[in-house]
Design goal:
It contains 8 helices and no strands. By secondary structure, it is an all-alpha fold.
Length: 169
């Protein structure tokens, strides 16, 4: 017979992944992203403890991510986040994530970073599977286009062939 575990122990195993997701959602929009992410995770854990045993949910992992996503949306609605003008832009992926719309960033983080299937991400975000696929595709396209556009703008030489053609040697 399996023994019943305390709800706190069920939740604690998910905290590192929830914190990673929260940091990805916040990006550089907050002056102290780590503190903001910790607060969102704390609110998620508190809600889970109020609900009782996580095993009562069909999929507690998905419920925790959905709750964290809801906390982030409430945070954004309460205060329109503004990037700190004193902070230099982050290089690479963090900068690219920060430029994505929140809806696209949520979907991309859940599928690519957290490893959820499109169906699981749809359940977390309250969308259809096709809606998640569309957002992930749009986010991936935007993440790959921006560095190329910046590179083209910085390069004085323009390619002689149309951009949709590829040279093969």
């Amino acid at each position: 017979m399996r023994e019943s575990r305390h709800p706190a122990s069920d939740v604690e195993g998910h905290v590192p992944a929830l914190r990673r997701y929260a940091l990805g959602l916040i990006g550089r929009e907050s002056p102290d992203p780590a503190a903001c992410a910790d607060e969102m995770v704390r609110q998620t854990v508190e809600r889970a403890r109020r609900k009782g045993q996580l095993g009562a949910f069909h999929d507690p992992h998905i419920w925790l991510y959905a709750t964290l996503t809801t906390c982030n949306r409430a945070r954004n609605a309460a205060q329109k986040p503004r990037p700190d003008p004193q902070r230099p832009p982050a290089p690479g992926v963090a900068e690219g994530l920060g430029r994505l719309a929140l809806e696209d960033r949520e979907a991309l983080l859940l599928v690519v970073i957290e490893g959820f299937t499109y169906a699981q991400a749809a359940s977390i975000l309250g969308l259809t599977r096709q809606g998640v696929a569309s957002r992930v595709a749009r986010a991936r396209q935007l993440m790959t286009e921006r560095p190329q556009a910046q590179h083209r703008a910085a390069s004085p030489l323009r390619p002689r062939h149309p951009p949709y053609l590829r040279l093969v040697k």
